[in-house]
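A note from the maintainers: we've had questions about how concatenated examples are separated. There is no special marker in the raw files; a new sequence line simply starts the next protein. For clarity in this README we add a label.
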Amino acid sequence: MHRGVLALALRTPHMATTLASVETREVVHCRFCKLVQFRPNNSCCVRCRRPLDVEEPVRPGPIPVESHPMDPATEAGLRVAGLVKEIRRARHLSQRNLAGRMQVPRTYISKIENGKAIPTLSSLERLADALGVHVRQLVRDARSQREEEEATILADPLLAEIAALLPCLGSLHRSLIASAAHDMALGHRRIA
C-alpha cells in the first residue's frame, strides 16, 4: 500500500452504515435549495441544512358575526326597500324613470332601495302612485302578504272548492291531485 492512502484511511472516521431498501425511504423536496433527496434522519436538507418540514401557517377561518336583533323601524325600511325594487323591476322601470315620476333625484330612489333612506309617509304615497300600487302594498308585513296571496288564490271558485276539501284528504290523494294538475297544465296525457 502507498503511504498516502494509509494516512488517508487513518484520518477518515469510520461510519456505521445500515442498508435500507429504497422502497421504504421517503423522497422529499427541499423548498429552499430545491434538492430532491431521501428523507434524512434529522429531517434537514443535506445541502442547505434547513428543515424539510416547514409547517404551513395556520390561516384563521371566518370570524362568526353576532347577529343583533334588528330595530323594527330598520326591518320595516328594508322590507319597503325590497318591495320598491321588486315592483320597479316588475314594471320595467329604471331608477331614473321612477325618480322622474316622483320628481325626486335618482339617488333618492337608490338610497331607498339600498335601505340607506327610509321614505316618509308623503314620500311613500308619491312612491306608490309612481309605481301604480296602493301604499298598503309597500308597507305590508309577511303575514299580511301571505293573507293577500291566499285571498287571491281563494278568489278562484275551483281553487276555493279544492282548498275546502284538502283537509279531508290523505297525503297520497293530495299528491295524486297535484300530479294530475301538473300533467294537465303541461299537456301530458296519461296512458292507462
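[label: protein 2]
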Amino acid sequence: MRKLFACVVLLSGALPVSPAAAKVLIDIDLSAQTMHVVSSTGTYDWPISSARDGYVTPDGTFSPQSLQSIHYSKKYYHSPMPHSIFFAGGYAIHGTYETRWLGRPASHGCVRISPQNAALLFDMVKEEGGIIHITGRPPVTHYAARRRHHPYYASAPRGYGAQPVGYGYSGYGYSGWGPQWGYEPYGGDDQ
C-alpha cells in the first residue's frame, strides 16, 4: 500500500521538484549574434561573437560537457577563455576581452560573450545545469581583411617570419642588439 501511495504522490507532482532538476535554457541565434538565457534567476539577452568567415560554430542542441573557470586555448595562441562552458569537443561559450567585436562574427568557432555575462552564465549552469540550442547562420564578414598588421611583422627579414620585438628587430626596425640575422655561429656558406 505504501508503494502505491508513493507512486500516486510522485505521479501527481505533489512533491516539490528539486532545484537540481531545473535547467538553464541557452538559445543562441547566429544570424542575430545574440544569446537568450532563461534560468531560475531571470531572463537575459546578450550580444555574442560566433565564428567569422573561414570558421564554423556548430549548430544543434547540446549539453554542457565541461566547465572551467579559466581555460587557455591550446590551439589559438594560449588565448584566455574565462568561464568556459564546453559543449561540443573544443567548442565553448566563454568570456572575451575583445568586447568591441560582440554583436558580430569574430571567433574561431566558440561563442564569445562579455566577461561579466560569462561569469553569470557559468554560475547559473554550474548550479542548475543547462541546455544549449544554436540556430541560424552567421552574417558574412570580412574580419581578416579589416585587421591591421602589427609593425614588427613587417620589419622581420624575409624568410624569418615574425620575430619577437626586441630580439634583433624591434617594432621600429633593426635594434642593433640580439642575434645578427644571417650570422651563422658555426661558419655558414659564406665562410
